[in-house]
């Protein structure tokens, strides 16, 4: 066996000396190893490898990473029998093809198919797509290589599958040909020839119903995805099959209304069955006729035994028997019956025939459609059973792992060697059945289960509750997998705390991108408001409930009205969407005030369940509450499966309680407490306790079935299987339950009745029966709404519906939502997406994204816009929907920029696509203007500010020509912005002032493409203030940047406040006002972390590091390491602003006397200036260079003179004064006086400045020049 084994066809598996490495798909080292092994025919340059794997890093940093990665790989792998696996020289790296290794790709691409065995071996190597689980965390070049390899191996696999089908057909083995034909269709669902071959093979193999069903599914897919009908050749094939097909007998009995003709599809379902195949090896058959006579009687006996155990005989030939258990009648003991039937056959069929029989049994899912006379039309579950039988020795009963999970503890088993199958990603675990065991099995039914084994967790909860009562808000997070008893633990807390004031809600997985969904859900339930109701009803309910609230009625009613009451018309909604920007903060404050005031009279328990499904806005609100309610008598209890999504400020204040499975003693105790009185014997309860694996919900669900006497001697192996079995017990009401699952975990009778087009009374009767089965539940005070008893019950029910059934119901429900007066855009978009109606869904994703952006929920907005674009990429109607795609691209630009970085690789790709559309189509002027805005983002962020200024000029011209006032003002702002960065401060002032004279906030809010952007009157104010500093108006600069922050605060628009704080900080860094910078930077960081603004969070880190260094005078060695790492990250995200960020750290290095780092940052700043044309910090960097030289005792006069010359050209009075002041100090140190003419010129310049005293260094220079120092 080779020392190193690399399996890349499918999920990446790397094994060295029988030890498998984990994390291979996410490790750059293993990516490098896989690439070199796959491309081992040539050496690779170090530069190319570094650029491919670390494209975003500087070249030297990339090569350093490459060296480190190669060193780590050699440390992990050592040497093979034939030397190192990796060979290197100074410039190249290559894989040693003579080393002791095995690569599946080599054998797959280069092996010969002279015989069937070789072909099957190659087919077995293809476990899936090449490097299937790899997340491309490298660059575009690696991604292109990966896609090329995937396409090449996929094409070759299809070619080999065709060869396998052809060979098996020529050998008259239709079962084998059918298996590979099915695999072909799975890999190439778009290939009609492949579908036609599969349909023909199904019919030839006696599965005519399955063939017809597959044709119909193919026809539906072609019509839906491509808008075409099957080819004439396919239709002729169907006609030939239908001529020989026998009609189905109508076996329907009296069923509820959801089984009627209008809901025939609801009867289709996934069902779990067990397949038994027993037979003889073909090599035992020398004379077929004689053999048939010999086995006729034993085969007939075996058939009778199987039928006695409730098996359904699908085929009984001389070579063996194929039988199904759990079909046509569902049987949750199907696996047990199948194994017992197999044991009966082995025991009762006499020798020598009995010794020659081998049996295979497998349990798996099938699709029941009612269109075929036998189950498993796809054949996968049956095929595994057949393979088990073929691989077993005569006289052996071999079962799969899936079957073992259903029968364990009932039979004596031993492990057999795993079975490798080409169709399976991993070898199949196989077990041998010896005989039935004598152990007892038990069932039970629970009422409300007692709390067992959670004393420590309950004590922690009570302790936190006691602290909350004393006036300190406490937060407890219960973390654990589904079913571990998180909700039951909170129920116990509520009981032990004497039922305090309770406020509770939950998060819905379907609403993860709907802003504030848990909050909306709570208030609608609390106020008894239907989901969709008139604004007047919302206003009346809020007024009646909160008008008398102590001192805060209006402050609470207004934001809640914004949250709950939607505009009555689309036009009104569009007009008012921007107003949501400021309401986020007011909403958070209103919720906090309600909780705080309610808790003044009596301590309050706030419960939010399933927080792992929370939307980002709700998480941000919780983070706010954690700080805001620090001294309130509130105990916040959260349940979730993982803490990964929790805000950091919430984690810091919370007690995390990780729930573990119960131990066996507690499980047994719980089982005995809730089981029926006649089924609590030690052995019987012990079986339940063991099988529960410590999951309380498993025990509860199992005992529910015990009360119904639903189990005899079969236990599902896992919770998911148990719930599936319970869902099966819903019987005739299963279609109703599946329809409810399509709506969501919570649903209303009215919506479900509307979906099924049935009277509410009829639907209510079925829901009552499902409630009695403990599958759904209803709040005690609500006769209209229901919810699934657990998220897993909902999930399992949803997945039991067939794909076509789910699509049809999603389509119907989406239509129902669209017919309402106030349609929920996000819900409609999601349901249409699930139907595959991408062309219809994208418009709703656009609308829901705009709704989210209107609430300043930019994370959710980005998700919605990107979802729409993803759907368009897979839609055959993409060309027709170019206008919607362009709107999606334009609307996405701003949310994407502030959440993921200004004009990164993704933004560049999206902009290029938008540009393609605009060139190919006659776009509206405002779309062109919005596209110019996106283009300006790219030019100013990644290219040059000169180009961005030209773009702004074009925007002004176009906007004026179409009288787009808001875009005209925006063009002047963008022109002034670019001019400032170019160091053209006078021109920047003119355009920024023009912006403020033209910009009308109402104009911006009425522009569809600007409504959810930052508010440019505020941003322009901040930029003008920043620009005035350079022009020497220090007092006006500080006032205007302060004013910009105040304006943004009153608007409550986080992105605008972020921009205002940035200009505020930039101005005060020039003025060396470290304390003010520290406060603003801390605030900026908190704002960015709350709303997911990546870039400016890093800027806040840099500013805080600057303030700390200035206040301290120096810093510890390495004290600026973190800041430098942050600088590298932010420069990568926004190269256009690099010089500004680099100057902040450069100035900190000067205060810290860290010259080594200072020279490094200065070098990077010169590079950035050259790349982008930015000159705003040119003088600042020259002054910094002079200080670095001075710190090292070198002459720096030439740097100061260059700084003076540049500042004079830029008309930057403040910078020129700084440069002359430092040169004057240099002269004074060498007893040289400034020339009189220069002195007079500087005095005149100071006279034209204002507020010099507000900037310490400028004030000192003025005193020197005026003779006061």
From TrEMBL:
Domain of life: Bacteria
Keywords: ATP-binding, DNA-binding, Nucleotide-binding
UniProt keyword annotation of Cytoplasm present: no
Domain Bacterial transcriptional activator as annotated: residue spans: 103-242
Gene Ontology annotations for the cellular component aspect, listed alphabetically: cytoplasm
Gene Ontology terms describing biological process: cyclic nucleotide biosynthetic process; phosphorelay signal transduction system; regulation of DNA-templated transcription
GO molecular function: adenylate cyclase activity; ATP binding; DNA binding
InterPro entries found in the cross-reference section: A/G_cyclase, AAA_16, BTAD, Nucleotide_cyclase, OmpR/PhoB-type_DNA-bd, P-loop_NTPase, Sig_transdc_resp-reg_C-effctor, TPR-like_helical_dom_sf
Domain OmpR/PhoB-type: residue ranges: 23-95
Signal peptide: none
Similarity comment: family membership: Belongs to the AfsR/DnrI/RedD regulatory family.
PANTHER family referenced in this protein's UniProt entry, alphabetically: GUANYLATE CYCLASE DOMAIN-CONTAINING PROTEIN, TESTICULAR SOLUBLE ADENYLYL CYCLASE
Protein name: Bacterial transcriptional activator domain-containing protein
Classification lineage: Bacteria, Pseudomonadati, Pseudomonadota, Gammaproteobacteria, Chromatiales
